[in-house]
Amino acid sequence: CYRSRSGKFNLLTPSHSGHCSVAKRCETVNTMASLLWWIVGFYWIVSGGDILLQNAPSLYWLAVVFLAFDVFFAVFCVALACLIGVALCCCLPCIIAVLYAVGQEGASEADLKVLPKYRFHICKDEEKPSVGAGKMVPIETSSGYLANERILLPEDAECCICLSLYEDETELHALPCNHHFHSTCIVKWLKMNATCPLCKYNILKGNEQV
């Protein structure tokens, strides 16, 4: 560290700064020499390959090897960049979901047992199917809680986790926020993350959302 004329302290000494400047110049010279060799070698191969092969076979094959290596390296870099781009586009949603789930507090078996449980029944003809796609008939849970029966419209009779329509006799779970899902789907979800997949209602912390 030395003090310049302006009174400020510089971290690099004059000798160290000189070494950096020499290294940068050597790097520039090396790059220019490689580019010049590539141009000259390409010209030799294209314009007088047969003559060069007869008069100087070693130089000919040296130029061919260097050109082939440069082409292979360029193709490899482009292919690698494309693979990385495709991998990021395909795997980014999964990576984001995993990172989001890491560190989230999951629900316990005791928390899951108190959630209202239903069995879905598709409306028959005599039950006026125009009123709704089906009804959620409550099932008594181990805690003894029995919820009220609910009628679902056609657009609501779907699990937003697996994106499948509710089939007849399917077991459902409803959360305190009134959103409902397949029992198997929502149980797996809540064990990893105790929030509603739709509105982020936290079943452990009440109205607190994350």
From TrEMBL:
<keyword id="KW-0833">Ubl conjugation pathway</keyword>
<feature type="transmembrane region" description="Helical">
    <location>
        <begin position="35"/>
        <end position="53"/>
    </location>
</feature>
<dbReference type="InterPro" id="IPR001841">
    <property type="entry name" value="Znf_RING"/>
</dbReference>
<keyword id="KW-0812">Transmembrane</keyword>
<dbReference type="InterPro" id="IPR013083">
    <property type="entry name" value="Znf_RING/FYVE/PHD"/>
</dbReference>
<keyword id="KW-0862">Zinc</keyword>
<dbReference type="GO" id="GO:0016020">
    <property type="term" value="C:membrane"/>
</dbReference>
<keyword id="KW-0479">Metal-binding</keyword>
<keyword id="KW-0472">Membrane</keyword>
<dbReference type="GO" id="GO:0006511">
    <property type="term" value="P:ubiquitin-dependent protein catabolic process"/>
</dbReference>
<dbReference type="GO" id="GO:0061630">
    <property type="term" value="F:ubiquitin protein ligase activity"/>
</dbReference>
<dbReference type="Pfam" id="PF13639">
    <property type="entry name" value="zf-RING_2"/>
</dbReference>
<dbReference type="GO" id="GO:0016567">
    <property type="term" value="P:protein ubiquitination"/>
</dbReference>
<feature type="domain" description="RING-type">
    <location>
        <begin position="159"/>
        <end position="200"/>
    </location>
</feature>
<dbReference type="GO" id="GO:0008270">
    <property type="term" value="F:zinc ion binding"/>
</dbReference>
<keyword id="KW-1133">Transmembrane helix</keyword>
<protein>
    <recommendedName>
        <fullName>RING-type E3 ubiquitin transferase</fullName>
        <ecNumber>2.3.2.27</ecNumber>
    </recommendedName>
</protein>
<keyword id="KW-0863">Zinc-finger</keyword>
<feature type="transmembrane region" description="Helical">
    <location>
        <begin position="60"/>
        <end position="88"/>
    </location>
</feature>
<keyword id="KW-0808">Transferase</keyword>
